[in-house]
TrEMBL record, chain A:
<dbReference type="InterPro" id="IPR015590">
    <property type="entry name" value="Aldehyde_DH_dom"/>
</dbReference>
<protein>
    <submittedName>
        <fullName>Aldehyde dehydrogenase</fullName>
    </submittedName>
</protein>
<dbReference type="InterPro" id="IPR016162">
    <property type="entry name" value="Ald_DH_N"/>
</dbReference>
<feature type="domain" description="Aldehyde dehydrogenase">
    <location>
        <begin position="38"/>
        <end position="240"/>
    </location>
</feature>
<dbReference type="InterPro" id="IPR016161">
    <property type="entry name" value="Ald_DH/histidinol_DH"/>
</dbReference>
<keyword id="KW-0560">Oxidoreductase</keyword>
<dbReference type="GO" id="GO:0016491">
    <property type="term" value="F:oxidoreductase activity"/>
</dbReference>
From TrEMBL, chain B:
<protein>
    <recommendedName>
        <fullName>Deoxyribose-phosphate aldolase</fullName>
        <ecNumber>4.1.2.4</ecNumber>
    </recommendedName>
</protein>
<dbReference type="GO" id="GO:0004139">
    <property type="term" value="F:deoxyribose-phosphate aldolase activity"/>
</dbReference>
<dbReference type="GO" id="GO:0016052">
    <property type="term" value="P:carbohydrate catabolic process"/>
</dbReference>
<keyword id="KW-0456">Lyase</keyword>
<comment type="pathway">
    <text>Carbohydrate degradation; 2-deoxy-D-ribose 1-phosphate degradation; D-glyceraldehyde 3-phosphate and acetaldehyde from 2-deoxy-alpha-D-ribose 1-phosphate: step 2/2.</text>
</comment>
<dbReference type="InterPro" id="IPR011343">
    <property type="entry name" value="DeoC"/>
</dbReference>
<keyword id="KW-0704">Schiff base</keyword>
From TrEMBL, chain C:
<dbReference type="GO" id="GO:0016620">
    <property type="term" value="F:oxidoreductase activity, acting on the aldehyde or oxo group of donors, NAD or NADP as acceptor"/>
</dbReference>
<keyword id="KW-0560">Oxidoreductase</keyword>
<dbReference type="InterPro" id="IPR016161">
    <property type="entry name" value="Ald_DH/histidinol_DH"/>
</dbReference>
<comment type="similarity">
    <text>Belongs to the aldehyde dehydrogenase family.</text>
</comment>
<feature type="domain" description="Aldehyde dehydrogenase">
    <location>
        <begin position="33"/>
        <end position="471"/>
    </location>
</feature>
<feature type="active site">
    <location>
        <position position="253"/>
    </location>
</feature>
<dbReference type="Pfam" id="PF00171">
    <property type="entry name" value="Aldedh"/>
</dbReference>
Amino acid sequence: MPKSSAPRLSVRKTFKLYIGGAFPRSESGRTYLVDGDNVALASRKDARDAVVAARKAQPKWAAATAYNRGQVVYRVAEMVEARRSEFKALGTAGDEVNAAIDRLVWYAGWSDKIAQVAGNANPVSGPFFNLSSPEPTGVVGVIAPPSLLGLVSVVAPVIVTGNTVVVVSGGPQVAVTLAEVLATSDVPGGVVNILTGHAAEIAPWLASHDDVNGLDLTGVDDPALAVELEQAAAGTLKRVRRAGTTDFTADPGLAPMTAFLETKTVWHPKGF
Amino acid sequence: MSDLRSLLHGLPGVDKVGVEARAAALGTRSVKTTAKAQAIDLAIRMVDLTTLEGADTPGKVRALSAKALRPDPADPTCPPVGAVCVYPAMVPVAFDVLKGSGVHLASVATAFPSGQAPLDVKLADTRDAVAGGADEIDMVISRGAFLAGDYTKVFDEIVAVKEACGPAHLKVILETGELATYDNVRRASWLAMLAGADFIKTSTGKVPIAATLPVTLVMLEAVRDYRAQTGRQVGVKPAGGIRTTKDAIKYLVLINETVGDDWLSPDWFRFGASSLLNDLLMQRTKLTTGHYAGPDYFTLD
Amino acid sequence: MLEYAPAPESRSVVQIAPSYGLFIDGDFTPGKDVFKTINPASEEVLSEVALGSPEDVDRAVAAARRAFETWSARPGSERAKYLFRIARIIQERSRELAVLESLDNGKPIKESRDVDLPLVAAHFFYYAGWADKLPYAGFGPSPRPLGVAGQVIPWNFPLLMLAWKIAPALAAGNTVVLKPAETTPLSALFFADICRQAELPPGVVNIVTGAGDTGRYLVEHPDVDKVAFTGSTEVGRQIARSVAGTGKRLTLELGGKAANIVFDDAPIDQAVEGIVNGIFFNQGHVCCAGSRLLVQESIAEQLLASLKRRMSTLRVGDPLDKNTDVGAINSAAQLARITELSEIGTEEGAERWSPECSLPDRGFWFAPTIFTGVTQAHRIAREEIFGPVLSVLTFRTPDEAIEKANNTPYGLSAGIWSEKGSRILAVADKLRAGVVWANTFNKFDPTSPFGGYKESGYGREGGRHGLEAYLA
């Protein structure tokens, strides 16, 4: 076969949504261009489908042992490490990739410790066993910041405790690349669902969705939208983590996890 | 008899904290004025006036029996007690005083209080007491056999003693303080009733833990449920440690709100007690005279 | 039949003034408008209290803001001593406060005396001890107070809800403006007097009486940093909406429709007590009331017979009588709501039963009631009735019980009755409720966090967790 002297034409990749462990296009058929890449433009119906997937996955994910969830999140860190060149190719600095990996490792370790820190026995005045322990809130809508470190910093703390998430990302290539990492790690389908598109278009549907239990507004940069979303979330009294400028390099503390944990207190009498 | 075992172990459990809380809550009922007067007279009629001492003599038992007939010599409206309760050897003495009075004569039998004697001894003990004039027999179960899980032995003993009682009523003492758990109290109650007990009784009064409100509550629930299931009514007798009117009224409240009217009678509920009677009499006098009574004014028999 | 003669608690231990002003900055100041508070058991007017206006709320918030600077700067050990003092005064005045609470609320004296008041004192005592130990509470090494807390409380446990709000707020170094419920303002006003007796610095606690509007002014006030509300889910939603975008911290303790699940191996007699306590305690005016009985079908008949027998011994009547088990419904409006929902229950085909009981002619009364033959589709199985009305449903398997228990937008509390430990733990794990009582019900303790999942609100009151709502 004669060698062609023409340069090889590269294969372009469409960045697709990540719902229930699969990579569908938007049901609307829409795409948009981001930095020259074709990206699926999620619609409200994609958000609806993602919530269904997240709800379906939630009980089993929450019922997995904390040890297991910790290993799954650690596996994500391993996979990001292995694919660091892809993130660098998308413009993420090496230091940030390192920080994102380290953050995943940090949260992986929290899975079987948070209950010991956020829960406790209560010395009630009577012959009762009384224990308070944290439980996941359920399905959480996450409006994520565009950066890899930002994305990991809002997704990992929510899922490591047993929640499932529907992420609306403002940094679509990074988010979809992370989705590809998740799909090839051990994260069960539906635990993380990623929608690329416009927060202003999709987030209100999550905020008002009756089957969404919590809303993380960290990545919302429009204050008016943040207020609108918080108001909509009041309809079913969703737990809301408010928007704010966040230095993702700082120690995140417990708040990103505890924002989407419920405290359950169980009483039982003690007697022969 | 594996049927017996599965029946007893199939009874609903008793939650200790719950039953104690319920008994304590009923213990806060306030019974005053006319209700208190009614309660005191009822309680007096329910007293099994008891002496069960090694030092009991005919003189002591005669005096006690006289007091049973007329607890307050100064007040003819004061009712007699329900029964006198003595050791078998003292039955003829008490019978002399009580016969024909309507005050019952109870005797502890069956190697009271330990129950640790061969069955034929227990039966002879019972027959003697009945022959001497006792119309109520308070037997003790063999707690050792019960705790060892030998329900059949306990059952058979009760059946045998019941037979030896002839026409006399049989009260079966569970010695609940030695049974240790409310689950056991409920099982022993059912065991005794199934074997033919006419009454179930908490205690001998000879071990540290005697009658308590929650134990009596569990036993009342047992007689209630047993009647609902079989149609036969069985009486209840808390004994030991009930010393004050306040205590006695708490038991009456317990009956009132657990099994109701049908048990609010000396035929179906008794207090095994000795010092209780004088406190009831003092409180009774306080209600009629309007001032507090003193022990010097009540007989010490 | 052993009748209990009337055993009224003496009313003379409490002196109610003919009128009360607002407690702002350490003094009672008259309001422009007033409203009356009545005894729901007799409809007798107890007192006239001030109707807090926006200006009054302004003054109260300003007083709290001024006091915040010094109160928050005081060493925790000093704040602690004020709270201990308050706890002691409450213990010493507990009979007076119990009678007052029963008069204004309609709850039986045995409950105000044996439940409300001991818990109120214990709550202050518990949080007093936290005031100088906040760095050890697990919320960071140097936790800070939030500022001025606007607190709105309901009428079902007036003084206890006040304690739940004020004790942790003060311990953490916040100052408060509290609005008691419209129908039960008196015990909060007596608490104001206790603050003076304890020589609490002016402005640390401010009590603004009023109706719904007064509460709205308070939670919407721009200088309030923290809002805490206990009440209906509907109002909770409005507050969450109004607080959106303000940056105010918010905790909500809202409605419930708790399932009380009885398995066939339950300790039956205690379960019956738990069911009765679950729904008839405080006339069922309890957000965590066990208002849905889920009973395993195999024992339903037997359990209902026991329940009915037990209900027949409930003594309904004069709240001040020491033997009363069920007191007065708190207001005409609440009685109307209970009546309406009960009528809907009958219309929808459920079978209604109440024991025979004679109700007083005056005042607001509702006989203890159960509905059988209820399904998940009935409104009485879904809506919070907030009265002495129990809906009885059945189930066949643990999964079905869990599914039905969780099939509600609420998630405040739940009950499980079974003698099998592993079943209890597995079911407790799966119930979506903030408080799970196993083989007990309606137990409260200052050390034990309380609060809901889902539309029952967010945040916890009580325990270490209760501090989080008042710390940054």
